[in-house]
Structures are given as structure tokens and as C-alpha cells.
Amino acid sequence: MFQLSTPVCLLGGLFGLLLLVSVQMAQTPASMCTPLKTLNYSLSHRQQYMKHNFPINYTIRVHSYEVFKLSNISTMRLQAEDLVLQRLWFLVNQGVLKKIIRVLPEKHPSRSYASELERRFKDAEGVFVQSHPAEVFQQELPETIQEAWDHLTEEPDRVLESRWRFATPKALLDNFCHTMHCLFSECFCSREQQQNCCSASYWRKGKKKKNEAERTAG
Fold it and tell me: Please, what's the b/e burial string for 64-82 (b: 16 or more CB within 10 A of its CB; e: otherwise)?
């Protein structure tokens, strides 16, 4: 029986490890950008549909892990690659959209918007899954990410009361949008701005410019 020499075996193992790392650290596939930009277009109307069409200070109950902000990404990046965080992002916002739709009556003026947003989200998720080898989704997750995953997939009636949070639909979709730009920055930011996409100050400046433009137009 033919046997590989030890150096060849080591080389093969090293190549396999490098291949795995390259998959984990790969940039966002170009195929992802079209559905994400379509999703981003829908999110650009979130103020009208998720703020103006709701009572002032209206909130919905979500899991604490569904309040997923840029600061969470900064912390989690110390322990996980972006591909893992992208998987978590899809899981988080799947739950967020379901909870928003659940509180909207059929004839609510924002119901069709939320349903369309969910459809476009699922389209992007489908492309995401197709863009990566199946092995990527079978890899063991870092402990902290696995903990978040387990809590997010827990049956609602088993979730501890201390795990629930209240947030406005608009705030949840703000988080949705900002973290999408951060984790899939190649689709939205120039190479020079990609770090800025994950900065809260970047989004505050953008909001300030938008408000100034609206006042000038008014």
C-alpha cells in the first residue's frame, strides 16, 4: 500500500488549514452585494414605516441578543471571524423581522413594507448560503457565539425574563442597517471607508448631515 511521507502529510494538513482560514477570512462574495443593496434600499425607508406609522415611543419585546449593535461586533471580533458574525447577523435579524411583523395587523400601513423587507432579507440569506461551501455552516462556533446562538434559538417560553428587552421598531432596523454595512462593508463602503462603516460616530455624522439637508430643503 502506498503511503505518503510525513513531510507530504504535514504539507497537506497545512494546505487544508490555510484553505479553511482563507474561507473564514474571505471577503464578501460579489454575488452578495446585489441582494444586500436591494435590502439596503428598503431599509432607507425605515423612518417612514417604522417610526411615523407607530405611536410615539412604541416598543416591542425582543431577546437581548437581538439588540445587535456595532459595539457587539467590535467585542465579538476579538473571538470570531466576520464570516461567523455574518451567520449570526442573519439569525439575529430573522428573529427581529418576525417579531416586528407579528405585532402588525394585516391592514397596518407598515405591514406590506415589513413583509417585503423580510422577503428581500430571505433572498440575501439564500445567496449567502449558496456563496459558501456547506462545510462552513457545519464548523464549530466559538464559545461566546455558540452561547448567543443557543439563546436565540431557544423556545420563547423557556427564555428567562431577564433576557428580554424592549426596543422601538425603528431602533431595531437602525441596528439591522448599521451592522449590515459593517459586516458586509465591501458592498457599501470604499476601501478607505470600510473601517468607518463599523464606527458609531460615522453613522452619527451621517444622521447629522441628513437632518441638516432636510432643514435646508424645508
Answer: ebbbbebebbeebeeebeb
In 151-190, which positions are buried (b, 16+ CB within 10 angstroms) versus exposed (e)? bbeeeeeeeeeeeeeebbbbbbbbbbbbbbbbbbbbbbbe
Beta bridge partners of 167: 60
pTM for the full predicted model: 0.81
DSSP for 193-208, written as a single string: GTTGGG-HHHHHHHHH
pLDDT exceeds 50 at position 4: no
29-47 confidence digits (pLDDT tens): 889 999 999 999 999 999 9
- How many other C-beta atoms are found inside a 10 Å radius of the C-beta of residue 107? 7
3-state secondary structure of 60: strand
Instruction: Give the dihedral of Cα atoms 148, 153, 157, 163; nearest 10 deg.
Output: 20
